[in-house]
């Protein structure tokens, strides 16, 4: 360091050069800001604190405020019932439309009778508590829209099929569908590298790249059984698989299929797979499947017989005559 007199005589530029020379001559390194690498960013994202967390949070808040003000300007109000405000109702027009449109009867198409080249196909429908009829299609329905076993809407005069209907599914089964993707990725699962590779090969690749299996001429496996002690990452791996694919994810807890009434558990399993067949691709995850997946036996106990019926229906859906389509099944058990 120069003497005090020389230091005071130096100008600002000279002082900065002297200070830098003294700084570089010391053993302490100059502290500099270093960029975050991928591991640092991944760690911050795990705790919800990414490098742009504050800016993104502020932007989301501004978007919500602007959307709220727009809705107030145009008179849109949130409603739990899904109905428009009463001041927007047009009851006379609704009554006139109800008189013009004839109500339909719910039926089930039991069989399709294929016709010749110049003739239209016929359909055998079963109208509950009335009779069976051989009918044709309406003007607004295509033959490709109707399949055997499907629920349809028919008019009350000629019983022609006017509209295909979705399958009737228990609301408790519909609620098992997971709407939002889990935020778990494969990097969040530690110590299961081999298991994750097998899961990706069995579940993820057939859904994302099915042409590979077609070119090889092999059928991919239809499901995976995850077993191990509690806390080893079985459910975590299933959530990571759901995050990687665009397939519908259905999570079922084994105890939910154990019902009090006879046949209820088996019916829920059937409706569960019916709902899965309506999706383009679907993953069904049975957690704690040992609640219904015990060994086969018959000791005469009524409650155990009901569990057996549920298990047999599940086995029938997994390896029965009905095609499963693009449905993957994951099961997890502690046994």
TrEMBL record:
The family annotation for this protein states:
Belongs to the AAA ATPase family.
Question: Where is each AAA+ ATPase domain found?
Answer: 220-335
Among its keywords, does the record have Transcription? no
The main place the protein resides is cytoplasm
What Gene3D superfamilies would the database entry show?
Nucleic acid-binding proteins, P-loop containing nucleotide triphosphate hydrolases
The Gene Ontology CC terms held by the record are: cytoplasm; proteasome regulatory particle, base subcomplex
Protein name according to UniProt: 1628_t:CDS:1
Species = Acaulospora morrowiae
- Alphabetical UniProt keywords: ATP-binding, Cytoplasm, Nucleotide-binding, Proteasome
Tell me the Pfam families matching this sequence. Answer: AAA, OB_PRS7
State a single Gene Ontology molecular function. Answer: ATP hydrolysis activity
């Amino acid at each position: 360091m120069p003497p005090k007199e020389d230091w005071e005589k130096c100008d600002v530029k000279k002082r900065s050069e002297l200070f830098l020379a003294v700084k570089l001559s010391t053993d302490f390194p100059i502290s500099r800001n270093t960029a975050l690498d991928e591991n640092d960013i991944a760690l911050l994202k795990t705790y919800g604190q990414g490098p742009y967390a504050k800016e993104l949070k502020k932007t989301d808040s501004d978007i919500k405020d602007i959307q709220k003000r727009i809705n107030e300007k145009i008179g849109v109000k949130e409603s739990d019932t899904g109905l428009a405000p009463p001041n927007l109702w047009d009851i006379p027009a609704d009554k006139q439309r109800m008189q013009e449109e004839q109500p339909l009867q719910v039926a089930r198409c039991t069989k399709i009778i294929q016709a010749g080249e110049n003739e239209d196909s016929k359909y055998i429908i079963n109208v509950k508590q009335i009779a069976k009829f051989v009918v044709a299609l309406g003007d607004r329905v295509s033959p490709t829209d109707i399949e055997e076993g499907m629920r349809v809407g028919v008019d009350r005069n000629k019983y022609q099929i006017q509209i295909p209907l979705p399958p009737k599914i228990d609301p408790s089964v519909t609620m098992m569908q997971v709407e939002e993707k889990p935020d778990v990725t494969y990097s969040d699962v530690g110590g299961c590298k081999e298991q994750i590779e097998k899961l990706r090969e069995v579940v993820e690749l057939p859904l994302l790249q099915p042409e590979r299996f077609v070119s090889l001429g092999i059928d991919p496996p239809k499901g995976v059984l995850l077993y191990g002690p509690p806390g080893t990452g079985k459910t975590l791996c299933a959530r990571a698989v759901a995050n990687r694919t665009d397939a519908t994810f259905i999570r079922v807890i084994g105890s939910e299929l154990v019902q009090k009434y006879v046949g209820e558990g088996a019916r829920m399993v059937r409706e569960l797979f019916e709902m899965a067949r309506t999706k383009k691709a679907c993953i069904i995850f049975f957690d704690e499947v040992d609640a219904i997946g015990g060994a086969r036996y018959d000791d005469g106990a009524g409650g155990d017989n009901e569990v057996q019926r549920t298990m047999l229906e599940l086995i029938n859906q997994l390896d029965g005559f009905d095609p499963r389509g693009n449905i993957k099944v994951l099961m997890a058990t502690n046994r």
